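Researcher: Before we compare anything, I want clean individual predictions. No alignment, no superposition, just each chain on its own. First chain goes here; please echo the sequence and then give the structure tokens.
Model: Echoing the first chain and its structure:
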Amino acid sequence: MINKVEGCFKYQVFELKSAGGQVRDFIPLSQVCLAIQFFIELSSMKIQDGLFNVGGNNTMCIKDMVLKLVRRCEVVLNYRPELIIPQRDSYKEKNVFAYSIEKLENIGFHIEKDIDTELDKLLLFCRNKYKEISHEIT
């Protein structure tokens, strides 16, 4: 996703290579880091077989995530990048993608579902990284 965000600052465009119909389970990176810390501190009695799904319990298609990112650009940066989505897509999603994180939740870890805050932080990070952009973002 970060290369999509960089495109917003470098070229003033979000461009998808497909129609964005592929479904993914999005999880903020900060939550992945917290999950790793949680596992490190977890007692061996609770580890069970050691296999856990770490997902955001936030399934959506890539196009919907990019549309969300465009909306967050408007809110955080007062700027709406151009969105380019191909009309035709050779990829067809066959199954609905959904992680079960019930096992993880049963041992006490709960995913924070505030994707918007994480996207806002990502946009602000990129704005600071690409201050040399030619258009003005306030």
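Researcher: Okay. Second chain, same rules.
Model: Second chain and its structure:
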Amino acid sequence: MESIRETQKNRETQKKYGSRSMITAIIIGFCLILSGYASVGKGLILGTLFSVINFVLIGEILPFTLGYSKRKTFLISFGFIIIRFLIMAVPLVLAVKFENFNLFAVIPGLLMIQLVIFADHLFRKLSSNRRTIKKA
């Protein structure tokens, strides 16, 4: 029963940050495309898409590593890391190969989940500090 709750909680977290990341990338990318920087906007969206896929895979793969011997856990984890790196390499290769995607925009896209998580925690910290100051 506990694992079902944990799985639901993981999926809610994935949905929350994945949605925020994609919405942010689409809005910024759309503005860039309208501004005449189509390859930059497309690169940002492409990188973010693969960042979200990677983030979801992390959450889905984690339960597979539980309950095995250290050696088997290591091999499973290592295999999934290789798969995740290959997935993260796809937008980089596409950006290098095709001019439709800007390489320097794909890279921040690949980091979009981390940026959104950081911004969320920073916002929560700042808003809790403001509440503490107002109470004092």
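Researcher: What stands out in the second chain?
Model: Helices lie at 2-34, 38-61, 70-97, 103-110, 112-135. Additionally, The mean pLDDT is 90.
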